[in-house]
From TrEMBL:
It comes from the Bacteria. This is AB hydrolase-1 domain-containing protein. InterPro entries: AB_hydrolase_1, AB_hydrolase_fold. The lineage of its organism: Bacteria, Bacillati, Actinomycetota, Actinomycetes, Pseudonocardiales. Residues 2-224 form the AB hydrolase-1 domain. Pfam families: Abhydrolase_1.
Amino acid sequence: MLAHGAGGSVRANFSPLIPVLSRTRRVFSVDYPGSGSTPRATGPLSLDDLADRVVAAAGDTPTFAVLGYSLGCAVAVRAAVRHPERVTGLVLTSGFVRVDDETRARIDTWRRLLAAGDPMRLARFQMSVVLGEPFERAMPAAQREGFLELMSLTVPPGTDQQIDLVQRVDLGDDVPKIGVPTLVVGTKHDRLITPSSTRALADAIPGARWAELDSGHAPSLEAPTEWIRLVEEFLG
């Protein structure tokens, strides 16, 4: 089961992983309200509701692991707590127990730019926090401009509701209850979710394994091969 991040979608966050994982197992996913083809919610998002949605997307498949990314890590953890009879393992990438002050300030800026209605200015800010500094510095100018244009044109309509939920997430009561094998994957050059927050998530889950990618907050772009390897080895 794939649980995507705020302001993203299953396709945007997991596209390199889906064909590889699908070779040996069934892969399930659902876009949150306001992402992909899922209609925007009529009110604030609930972590419980998102967790129930991703579990429901597995249909009658009795058990499965959940691969969460960013906000999707919180969704995955809550799914494991609410549905322990179905969730058999967790892979949590770029996650957090709760956002720290540094991340909260970045998300406040994200919300202000989103409300201001300037897509290119918003895209420049998103690039500055989503891509790791080494990866961004190495991008050719043409690739950089193309990426900015793509980001400016692909903002999901439910982004504001999703990042509002990020700021409200607190897994303090959930993480001690996790009793399934868990791999937490940090992103070493992350400029959105501070790497120490992801490490704190790993430390809070009993028996969690730890791994780290040499990437920023976009491992599907910066380190897809290594990310896939970590996921495949853990699931295996």
